[in-house]
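Collaborator request, handled under Task 6.
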Amino acid sequence: MSEIRYRVRSVEQAAPPEGVQGGGPWCRYVIEWGERTIVGHRRGTVQQVTRHAQAFVEELNARAAGKGRSMWAPRQRGRTSG
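C-alpha cells returned to the collaborator:
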C-alpha cells in the first residue's frame, strides 16, 4: 500500500477496563490517522496487543483504500434488486 493512513501510536500496560475482573494482563492501544483516534483495550502482553493493533491498522487501511472487507465490521446480507 503506497499511502499509510492509520498507524499504531502506542501500546502500553493498563488496568482492566471498568467492570472487568481479573484475567491476566491488559493493555491499552491507540491508533491514529490525522485527528482521528481509536483507543482500545485488550487482554494480553504488550507484544500480543501490538500484533493485534497492527493487524487492525492493516485492515483499517485496506478498508480506507477500498480493498476488502473488515473482519471487525458486520458482514452485509445478500442484496436484492428491486
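The cover message to the collaborator said: "The chain has a mean pLDDT of 85. Residues 9 and 79 are 38 Å apart (CA to CA). Please let us know whether this matches your experimental observations."
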